Amino acid sequence: MSKDKHVSETPATHLLRQAAVPFSEHPYEYVEHGGALEAARQLGLHPHQVAKTLIMEDENARPLVVVMHGDCEVSTKNLARQTGAKRISPCSPETAQKHSGYQVGGTSPFATRKRMPVWIEATLLDFGVMYVNGGRRGYLIGIAPSVVMKVLGAKPVEASLPKS
After folding, report:
1. Does the residue 103 lie in any domain?
2. Pairing of strands 155-157, 118-121
3. What are phi and psi of 55, to 5 degrees?
4. Backbone angles phi, psi at 80, to 5 degrees
5. Where is the composition biased (Polar residues) (predicted)?
6. Domain extent at residue 62
7. Rounded to an integer, what distance in angstroms lies between the CA atom of residue 52 and that of residue 81?
8. Nearest-5° angle of CA 20, CA 24, CA 30?
9. Which tens digits make up the pLDDT trace of 147-159?
10. What is the CATH number of the domain that holds 143?
11. Hey, what long-range contacts does 19-22 have (CB within 8 A, 24 or more apart)?
12. CA distance 123 to 61
């Protein structure tokens, strides 16, 4: 990691540095509604290796974090079944921001304002490195999926659907 690529600290990177977790930094030009696919395109990464962080909620409005491939959608039915919920749906952007403490488009699964269970798409664990938001729009971090599991106490889930 070169010094000129360093992005100022976020709650996510602060937590990872405190825990002595190795990660790489990958700033890019944020594009409104570009998402993980735009980040992957700009950084020359495979979109399946770039994860998006989604804040969702169950039927009782209990929030949860879902880390999913950037080129896939979440099957909320499969997710609900595997997490023991009756129903899961995405939070509104305002609610997601309130739970995570991050601006939508810059949501990291690390150091969220509210402690939430984290579910990670199982096939992301197949990569040596995955790329996930570092806590700010236009900023990904490269990190080992096994480390994500350990630091977040994440549980694997099989809930990916090809993007329609």
Report:
1. yes
2. parallel
3. -105, 120
4. -60, -45
5. 92-105
6. 22-162
7. 21
8. 130
9. 999 999 999 999 9
10. 3.90.960.10
11. 19/151, 21/143, 21/147, 21/151, 22/143, 22/144, 22/147
12. 27
Residue 15 lies in a domain: no
CA distances from 150 to 39, 55, 155 (A): 25, 19, 9
Q: Is 142 within the bounds of a domain?
A: yes
Q: Are 93 and 106 in contact (CB under 8 A)?
A: no
Nearest to 113 by CA among 130, 101, 95, 127: 101
Residue 133 CA: distances (Å) to CA of 16, 46, 62, 103, 104: 13, 15, 22, 11, 11
Task: For residues 145 and 125, give the distance between their C-alpha atoms in angstroms, rounded to a whole number.
Answer: 5
Q: How far apart are CA 125 and CA 156, in angstroms?
A: 8
Q: Mind listing the pLDDT tens digit for each residue in 54-111? A: 999 999 999 999 999 999 999 999 999 999 999 999 999 999 999 999 999 999 999 9
Q: How far apart are CA 13 and CA 119, in angstroms?
A: 20
Q: Has this prediction a pTM greater than 0.90?
A: yes
Extended strands (E) in the chain: 24-27, 51-58, 63-69, 72-74, 88-90, 118-121, 130-136, 139-143, 155-157, 160-162
Query: Residue 30 is encoded by which pair of tokens?
Result: 């944020």
Question: Does residue 68 belong to any structural domain of this protein?
Answer: yes
